[in-house]
Design goal:
This protein has about 140 residues and is mostly helical. The protein has 6 helices and no strands. The chain has one domain. α2 runs parallel beside α5, α4 packs across α6 and α5 runs antiparallel to α6. The protein starts with a helix and ends with a helix.
Length: about 140
Amino acid sequence: MSPEFTEKETVWGRHSNPKSGWSRLGAGFVIVAALYYRDWRVIGLTALFLVINPVLFPEPAEEPDDWMYAVVRAEERWTNDGHRLVGLGYPQILNTLSVPIGLYGLYAAYKRKPISTVVFPLASAGLNQWCMKKIIDHYRELDSR
């Protein structure tokens, strides 16, 4: 096994820790709130946390029955199978749409539009998780055959 592949496996393994996924999801909302309140220190610290997050947590010792574990393992399998996580096909379009919607949520936070600051980041996260559910369902169907 090449060192690059082993390193890639290790990153995915550590990234699959549910604490990694849930804290990443929460960190996105922290950045939105910090932008709304103009707390640049919190934005910087949260951005740093997001950068180191995929290797911050240990790989789970056993396969946990957790949504985020399933999400990361499905992402890993999907990309290893040559699929992209963004694109115009289904379910990637859901993830693709989540990007401009999430960016608008950041803009709304910056402009201090309270309703849009809440609605758009939630919609973005919802689209992302919907995409991940469809990818998980795809592999569950394949594996059940």
